[in-house]
Amino acid sequence: MTLEEALNDTAQLVARTVDQLLPRPEDAEAKLLEAMRYAMTGGKRLRPFLALQSGRLFGVDEANMVRVAVAVECIHAYSLIHDDLPAMDNDTLRRGQPTTHVRFDEATAILAGDALQAMAFEILANPLTHSDPYVRCNLILALSKAAGCHGMVGGQMIDLECENMNPNIGMVTRLHQMKTGALIAFSCESGAIMGRASKEPTHALRAFAHDLGLAFQVVDDLLDVEGDPEIMGKSAGKDTESGKATFISILGLDRSREQAEYLSSQARTHLDLFDEKADLLRDVSKFVLTRHK
Amino acid sequence: MTLEEALNDTAQLVARTVDQLLPRPEDAEAKLLEAMRYAMTGGKRLRPFLALQSGRLFGVDEANMVRVAVAVECIHAYSLIHDDLPAMDNDTLRRGQPTTHVRFDEATAILAGDALQAMAFEILANPLTHSDPYVRCNLILALSKAAGCHGMVGGQMIDLECENMNPNIGMVTRLHQMKTGALIAFSCESGAIMGRASKEPTHALRAFAHDLGLAFQVVDDLLDVEGDPEIMGKSAGKDTESGKATFISILGLDRSREQAEYLSSQARTHLDLFDEKADLLRDVSKFVLTRHK
Fold this sequence. Notes:
The structure is a homodimer of 293-residue chains. With 293 residues, chain A is mainly alpha-helical. The first copy, chain A, has a single domain, classed as Orthogonal Bundle (Farnesyl Diphosphate Synthase). In chain A, 72% of the residues lie in helices and 1% in strands. The first copy, chain A, has helices spanning 3-21, 30-39, 46-57, 62-84, 100-103, 106-125, 133-147, 152-162, 169-194, 199-226, 229-232, 238-242, 247-251, 253-269, 279-290; strands at 93-94, 97-98. In chain A, strand 1 (93-94) and strand 2 (97-98) form a beta hairpin. In chain A, helix 1 (3-21) crosses helix 3 (46-57) and helix 2 (30-39) crosses helix 6 (106-125). The radius of gyration of chain A is 18 Å and the shape is globular. At the A-B interface, helix 2, helix 4, helix 6, helix 7 and helix 8 of A face helix 2, helix 4, helix 6, helix 7 and helix 8 of B.
């Protein structure tokens, strides 16, 4: 299976599961549920893909693993809704569509994000995700840490604060490890948690995720400078406009490109202990370099 | 012990535990952690009190139960931060202090709310809360449902939608059961989950919470009309101003007062199967009628 086929499969599987797991709009709260579904539509589904591939490495049943994949996507989608708000990045376009607060309104967008976060933990706590409550608790502990004040949300806070300072490469790296890296790391590690894997493969996946996440972010910064807004489905040039410190503003274009290639290749070396089951993870580490959106 | 002493004890215990559990502001995300601590300061601590009293009924160790109490308070505090935002209720005063987005800024307030929600689930998933992961999963499942799109957040959505319609008493009741009732019900039930109680006492506590929560809300509506903003530490008259449908606007002042008294006394009948250990819960059902803030 090629990476493209696998990504498409993931997208379809995730869309079906989202449709099953997300409540249908009825009652007076219909608008909220519509906004939740809207925010959970489309996107690359990178995190679900990583979770599903991670599960494959340890023979985890896909029917269970896709629930973890959707839980991660709930957290990711909620963070995008809130990041796009006028008080935050003030973005009007996401995945080629109006952002949630533009399509609905600000209050609904805030609440849809809040409800998606609660839903992520509800999905993980449900026995359908894994029969062993110890495993479910480990998933919840890992995801709540990855999403919280020392993970994704903390990284977003630092990102906003950085606009008023002159951060060095260490700070920018730390902020991205928190803002996007933590959730990518959870995705890569989730199969090991579900499969009750030993320490060695778990650490290998964490190290892979670390390098992959940073490579992904460096390319994100490159795309903001060089990317085509029509292909990306979101605004470009926002970092330069806002005077934001990025890998590009600190390292320059050439060294940033080199750095992304180095991180991508280093990511693959951490997969050496896995057999061909990890090939799609190897492919995705190359794909992050060539993506256009 | 009088109810007042017990409430004071709860407030001190919760403040100490919040101080231990919430990370200290260091690093670049310091502002976020400060905002989280700010939002977790003060308040009646009604939900933690209910959780701790519920735990007492089943002999749950207070050191464990207070973690559940703080988790509920994290959810409550995050909901207040987000409800107060300009895009929502646009409140500037809460507990006699500037609301979080006024004291800090909007972006920080949104993120502090998000991080507090993640922290609630992180606290519950931690083995220190209960040694049995099955119990921890049950807590997380119950709290995520109470907080999510068919609970607190859904209720807030309906509340906002109601401003554009003419809701009947059934709708207003349902919205409050979701918006405030669900979290109060979780608080009352949490001791039964922690103590692995049988169905009968669990259902009794849920029924108690149902009536208590509604009584609490009717009094809230009464205070908005008759309360002293200085004592309450928040603005009054907001419901009338916004033309919001409340128990008062539908039932009138006299019938609302009667209804609150009826609900309070009905709440107590559900506690008949408990001995004097439930006396403080009986007291609190009377207290909601006489509170001034």
